[in-house]
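User: My advisor, Dr. K., asked me to get a structural model of this assembly before our group meeting. I'm new to this, so sorry if the format is off. These are the inputs:
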Amino acid sequence: MNANFGELFALMFSAMLVYNFLLSRFLGMCSFFGVSQKIDTAVGMSIAVIFVMVVSGISAWVLNLLLVAWHIEFLQILVFVLVIAALVQFIEIFVKKTNPVLYNALGIYLPLITTNCAVLGVVFLNLNQNYDFLQTIFNTVGSALGYALAIILFASIRERLSIDELPPVFEGMPAAFITAFVLSMGFMAFNGMIKA
Amino acid sequence: MANHVKIALILTTVMVVIGVILAGVYLMTYTPIVKADLNAKFEAIKFVLTDQTTGQLLVNQDEIPKTIDQLNAKIWKSNSSGVLYSNPKLPGYVLSPAYLFKGKDGSNIYVLTGYGIGFGGRVVTVASFIQQSDGKFFENAIDVIDFANETPGLGAKINDPDVRSRFFDIPNSGFKDGIRVNKDADLFPLPSNYKSEIPTYKKEGIVVTSDVMTGATITPRSVANTLNAMYEFLEKEVK
Amino acid sequence: MANQNGETNLAVLTAGWIKQNPTFVQVLGMCPVLAVSTSAENALGMGLATLGVLAISNLFISFVRNIIPNEIRIPVYISIIAAFVTMVNLLMHGYTYSLWVSLGIYIPLIVVNCVPLGRAEAFASKHGPWKSFLDGLGMGIGFLGAIMLIGITRELFDAGTIFGYHIWSSAYNVFVVALPPGAFLVIGLYMGLFRYIGKMRSQKKVQGDESK
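Assistant: The format is fine. Below is the predicted structure of the whole assembly, which you can bring to the meeting.
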């Protein structure tokens, strides 16, 4: 696995656009529908997710070396979930102490990330693909950016949609799902970007 | 402070209890898991050792491995790195170990495992190559054993019987310049009589997939690349 | 949720079926519903795995709810859920290999499915073991029903089959349903349909009341 930088960037962009976490892997759906009514909240959530995803992606990669070395891979799920939960807690305390403004902006989203499957999802995908350290970093960053891109786009559409007149039975969630359908179709067009 | 210690103690106790219980379940399921993994491997090997047109086994019944020892006895080449051959340009990789079986007619049948890069990561394929009397290789059948990251409804159809069968029975001539899917061979859209022409295309190294896998090119291309790497590996190692 | 002891066991069990259906009403735990609903078989496997984890983890969390200090309840709940998910993962690997392969990383991800943790926090931490078990079971059944409905629909329109049995010829197939975007479409349409049915029902009720 001696990937050069071109390949690493290709990996990052494909993680961001082609295998978009929200729109083609369906990970992190709770937050996708839960905090996308307003662009502001979507941006806040994105920043929090990027932060936690990158840090936990890297720490999980390192920790997995230990788990493999000690032959206790069956504890993977438990360990990774706890690492993410602990990280979220730690980041919360750290941000609260050092940057109250940022804390006020992110505060309510941080605890939600513990149950955001996108974070644990990227950890397991990295492991499944046997990525080395650099590949893990680039894939994680790409996935996190892809998450941000999709949720912010989606929130923008929903914000605009909320002032439109819709058939009453489709107002709210059903319309959100149909919007996600259209957006997801759009992202499928990125498939053509991959060339073997 | 005492409260903190109490909390830490409770948390530690919970973790230790859970850890011990999980270790118990792990030990209990260890044998079935090893068995299930092996069985999947046996199934794949048996499948590719079957002549797909007649449904007859290519080797004697007792040649089909049923235990890990019997399987290990069939190892032809293996190494510690896990990769026997790689062609990053395709990209296509051949994994260790490679197996060698003796066919009913005395021919050598190589069973190889390899992978190419599909839409969402590795697409792992098991394939069998028969060395015919003139020394040339004939690819008999494939079984795609891991395509978990391919798109449902698109690339994930790769192991459907009617898709998989498009990769069966490819003669040596097809591998000369490498096999490719029909979209990469400028054979798209397909002519109306293409179904009867499929064996001819195979001789030219063209695998028709666009009719049974609408819209998906990356996954079949990765399987084609895997087979190309396997062929290159055999050409290098057998001759 | 301020439901007190007045609730009957039956009401607890059935709440998750329709009225508080985790998928269609609460819109929780959507990742597996969208991702592994491409065929009825996968949907059944995922639904049963989630149901098992939900019911048993609810039961255990209810047992320990009084001895766990409030500050660390979330980590403890998560570890209990993670423990059961690991067990399900190991058991499925050993005994239902092909299903395990096709569900892939979505089994470990049951841990972060919002439904089990949500029910632990909202119900099991406040109710006795028996009721919590019933709640987990009921929510699990609601989840199973929803994912099955979507799985069957998607398989039917993708391949014309249900559980592999031939239903109609491929001429009726709508290709897009099997693709990732199709999952959003099917769920969105079902949600609209259920709302429509709910509205018709309540209208009928109003009319019926008026005519009396």
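One thing worth pointing out at the meeting: Residues 93 and 100 of chain C are 6 Å apart (CA to CA).

User: Perfect, thanks a lot.
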